């Protein structure tokens, strides 16, 4: 939305009103606008302009106050045409550079990015985990533990090593596990993890009557080893408590529905999936996200990559009155630094 839809005077007053409302969360009256906007006009003129902006859908008057607050359309005009984005403070840039260290694994980088987004923006930060097609199985090792337990060592992509314990129906010797690992590596190394698991399950189903006990055991070990990795969390979120700490009394009541949406995941994941093909930062204000539960919240997102392909999306969720001039560059820079770390 371009600023030429309203007059210069109206744009100054709208910008002043939005910034004041973001700052204190309260409706803004004409007297406050007259003091802060610095325009050589009377209070009556300001009231007339505000009334016109309300009639056109940019502002709304809450029943409990003579002042006005921005609507989603008012915020959209502000973000698109009136916003003055601020560069990140050097402290924030240093924190991002330090925590998004390319020596960390992909999972560690995702966790760090989520926490950084929350701490720097003072909102909820989230990062989707890298897409499964970006997780390549390089090598697997099985080591016997006590009882029917096996230590699985997974090498994913070029350098990420993950350890987990699986439970088997019977104990295995070290030699049996070594042979099973050799078979799995020969057949499935180099494939995306989700594809490898699908192939393993297909072989187990299609050839169950024909395969010998050794091959069956090897496939079952491989299936259990990959199951936890393939069914991992779809995104990592941090800073939900910050939404409560920054909320007004009215906003706290609406947060329960938002937190329910976080747990349900479906709507949020669908929104993030739509953002994965975007070029740079996207801002969804209120119901622009396409879901009623986001009606009083904004979502600022950006995709991240490994320099070759898009791996996922990161972003910040907060009330529509969030400080967009700070949040937008935080999301943008974090996405770029996470991409650089994963590319290395």
Automatic annotation (TrEMBL):
One of its GO terms (molecular function) is DNA binding. Residues 108-328 form the Heat-inducible transcription repressor HrcA C-terminal domain. SUPFAM superfamilies: GAF domain-like, Winged helix' DNA-binding domain. InterPro entries: GAF-like_dom_sf, HrcA, HrcA_C, WH-like_DNA-bd_sf, WH_DNA-bd_sf, WHTH_transcript_rep_HrcA_IDD. The keyword Cell division does not apply. Pfam families: HrcA. It comes from the Bacteria. Keywords: Repressor, Stress response, Transcription, Transcription regulation. GO terms for biological process: negative regulation of DNA-templated transcription. Negative regulator of class I heat shock genes (grpE-dnaK-dnaJ and groELS operons). Prevents heat-shock induction of these operons. Belongs to the HrcA family. HAMAP family: HrcA. This is Heat-inducible transcription repressor HrcA. It comes from Halioglobus maricola. The gene is hrcA.
């Amino acid at each position: 939305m371009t600023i030429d839809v309203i007059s210069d005077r109206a744009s100054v007053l709208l910008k002043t009103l939005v910034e004041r409302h973001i700052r204190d969360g309260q409706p803004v009256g004409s007297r406050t606008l007259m003091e802060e906007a610095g325009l050589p006009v009377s209070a009556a003129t300001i009231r007339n302009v505000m009334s016109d902006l309300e009639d056109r859908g940019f502002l709304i008057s809450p029943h409990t106050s003579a002042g006005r607050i921005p609507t989603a359309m008012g915020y959209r005009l502000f973000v698109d045409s009136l916003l003055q984005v601020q560069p990140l403070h050097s402290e924030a840039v240093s924190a991002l550079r330090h925590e998004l260290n390319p020596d960390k694994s992909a999972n560690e980088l995702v966790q760090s990015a989520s926490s950084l987004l929350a701490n720097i923006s003072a909102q909820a930060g989230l990062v989707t985990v890298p897409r499964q097609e970006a997780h390549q199985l390089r090598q697997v090792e099985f080591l016997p533990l006590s009882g029917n337990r096996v230590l699985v060592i997974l090498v994913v992509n070029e350098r990420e090593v993950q350890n987990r314990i699986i439970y088997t129906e019977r104990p295995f010797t070290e030699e049996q596990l070594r042979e099973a690992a050799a078979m799995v590596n020969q057949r499935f190394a180099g494939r995306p993890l989700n594809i490898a698991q699908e192939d393993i399950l297909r072989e187990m189903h299609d050839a169950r009557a024909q395969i010998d006990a050794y091959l069956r055991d090897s496939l079952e070990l491989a299936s259990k080893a990959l199951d936890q990795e393939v069914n991992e969390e779809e995104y990592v979120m941090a800073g939900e408590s910050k939404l409560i700490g920054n909320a007004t009394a009215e906003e706290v009541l609406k947060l329960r529905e938002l937190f329910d949406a976080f747990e349900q995941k479906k709507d949020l994941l669908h929104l993030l999936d739509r953002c994965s093909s975007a070029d740079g930062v996207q801002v969804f204000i209120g119901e622009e996200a396409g879901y009623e539960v986001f009606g009083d919240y904004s979502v600022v997102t950006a995709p991240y990559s490994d320099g070759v392909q898009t791996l996922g999306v990161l972003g910040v969720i907060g009330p529509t009155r969030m400080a967009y001039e700070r949040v937008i560059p935080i999301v943008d820079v974090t996405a770029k630094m996470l991409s650089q770390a994963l590319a290395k």
